[in-house]
Amino acid sequence: MREFFVVDGRKLSYLDFGGPGTPILALHGHYNEASVFAPMAEALAPRWRVIALDQRGHGESDRAQRYERDDYVADVAAFHRHLGIGPVAVLGHSLGGVNAYQYAARQPDQVRALIVEDIGAVVDCDWSFTLRLPRHASSRQELVAALGSAAAYLECSFRRSEGGWGFSFDLEHTVASQKALNGDHWQDWTAVACPTLLIRGTRSDELASTHAADMIARRAGKAFLAELPAGHVVHHDAPAQFAAAVEEFLSVQG
After folding, report:
1. 10-13 contacts: CB < 8 A, separation 24 or more?
2. Residue 48: pLDDT band with limits 50, 70, 90
3. Mean pLDDT computed over 89-104
4. How far apart are CA 184 and CA 161, in angstroms?
5. What are the distances in angstroms from CA 68 to CA 56, 229, 230, 253?
6. Overall average pLDDT of the 30-47 stretch
7. Quick check: helix, strand or coil at residue 4?
8. Contact at 8 Å (CB) between 27 and 53?
9. Dihedrals φ, ψ of 200, to 5°?
10. How much is the pLDDT for 101?
11. Res. 14: pLDDT tops 80
């Protein structure tokens, strides 16, 4: 079920996939939105109830003036407060992964377990792909053709308007967000106190195996690594294995 709440005059949207299970907050990456977690939510039900945020500038949430690190983390905190569900597990992919571990680092009493999907403690994002995305297509088929193999990863964000087809995010806003994501975030990563699962795609062009190993080593005994046969979007490329890894980790955490 889609719901909304307001923070500082901005509307934020989220999907509560429902059920009787223990809540998991889910944070998507760039080019995506809350609906991307529908297959995972189905796979984890009924034991786990996935509640996924359309982060600022994405999906049905309002565009924002800023896309800085503190802004995203503040949105996650507001989302969590709005739900009123107490300490939870938080899962994030890429952009959402950094948002998740920064929230866990800065609000340790609110996050009892953390799952970070294919993003590092140092981020060097290349936004050239964003600048190559089509701004407009006359039909869905034309948009799919223009995107090629990337279409499968972006289709949850396709939107139809009077003028044709595009996305549920603005290209300029995405570039601003990607620029703000770049940087050294080791301080936040090492400050996370809760048990953490880092999931890496073995074909990832974002998170190198050596960097992932370093992330685990710097949080020895508290962080664990799962490497699955996938690219950067592990939950898409290996959905069953991804859901199984998440469920196994969370089951151990209770």
Report:
1. 10/56, 10/61, 10/62, 10/64, 11/60, 11/61, 11/62, 12/53, 12/54, 12/56, 12/61, 12/62, 12/75, 12/78, 12/79, 13/53, 13/54, 13/59, 13/60, 13/61
2. very high
3. 98
4. 39
5. 11, 32, 29, 31
6. 97
7. strand
8. yes
9. -120, 140
10. 98
11. yes
Residues 6 or more apart whose CB falls under 8 angstroms from that of 196 comprise 101, 104, 113, 114, 115, 116, 219, 222, 223, 224
12: tokens are 């934020």
pLDDT of residue 254: 63
Tokens matching residue 46 = 């009924």
195-229 pLDDT, tens digit each? 999 999 999 999 999 999 999 999 999 999 999 99
Beta strands in 10-152 (DSSP E): 10-16, 22-27, 48-54, 88-93, 111-117, 122-123
